[in-house]
Design brief:
- The chain has 253 residues and is an alpha/beta fold.
- It has a single domain, classed as Ribonuclease Z/Hydroxyacylglutathione hydrolase-like (Metallo-beta-lactamase, Chain A, 4-Layer Sandwich), CATH 3.60.15.10.
- The protein contains 5 helices and 14 strands.
- The relative contact order is 0.14.
């Protein structure tokens, strides 16, 4: 070995001792937060896919709604109440675990779902019956789907719901809370990312509900409104704002 090569080897050895080996690319990739992908199908229907390709479908609707029915093959499906535009589970594969309008704790696909019973109207359910909010965690984020909640929760219901990171909230009024109430609800549960749902679109012009604009008009200036420009968005714990909130508007097609 000549002196130049020997010197290079000695220098390399010293650098290795001081700084250690460079991290492998595979290890860096494995450490990255996989996050979740949230896809809106229209109305109150979302499909949320997390680590390990575990997916949760909320409130699927049938054909004839104006929207294209969901075509995903979810691991779990939650149904907030038994109205036809929220409970079309007959198209799902037999392997899908279905949690159907029941309060309390439920285990499915290694995830704990907490159901909190509220009402579909502001008259203690006298007009439209009960509705179940489902809360669960994926990729380090606490997620809540509020179904067709028709009133602001009571203190006891808020205690059961707790604080959430990601909230899917109806904003169209008439059958559910309206836009201003949706903002108040998001504040009550300290939501950091809000996905509006159940509002009038070009696909549901005949429904007696409001469009998105009244909700957006009620959003405070400290919140950031983002139009995703597509049907889905990826979200990780690092994307949650430290202050204020993000409102993400998805397309349905």
């Amino acid at each position: 070995m000549n002196r130049t090569l020997a010197g290079a080897c000695i220098c390399a050895g010293l650098l290795l001792c001081i700084f250690g080996p460079a991290p492998a690319q595979e290890e860096v990739g494995q450490m990255a937060d996989p996050g979740i992908t949230i896809r809106w199908w229209g109305q109150a229907c979302f499909c949320i896919t997390g680590p390990g390709d575990v997916s949760v479908l909320n409130d699927p609707f049938p054909e004839g709604m104006g929207y294209d029915p969901p075509t995903c093959t979810p691991t779990v499906c939650t149904v907030s109440h038994e109205h036809r535009d929220h409970n079309a589970v007959e198209r799902l594969p037999q392997t899908t675990q279905i949690i159907r309008g029941v309060a309390g704790e439920h285990e499915a696909a290694g995830i704990t779902f907490t159901g909190v019973e509220v009402f579909h109207d502001a008259e203690q359910g006298a007009k439209r019956g009960a509705n179940v909010i489902y809360i669960w965690s994926m990729a380090g984020m606490r997620i809540a789907h509020f179904g067709d909640i028709g009133h602001l929760p009571t203190p006891e219901q808020l205690r059961q719901i707790g604080t959430v990171d990601v909230a899917m909230v109806p904003v169209g009024g008439f059958y559910t809370i309206d836009g201003a109430q949706a903002v108040k609800l998001a504040r009550q549960v300290s939501a950091k990312v809000i996905f509006p749902m159940h509002y009038k679109t070009a696909a549901t012009e005949k429904l007696p509900i409001s469009g998105l604009e009244p909700f957006l008009a009620a959003v405070p200036d400290t919140w950031q409104v983002e139009r995703a420009g597509g049907v889905s968005v990826q979200l990780g714990a690092a994307d949650l704002p430290e202050q204020g909130a993000r409102v993400i508007v998805l397309d349905y097609k």
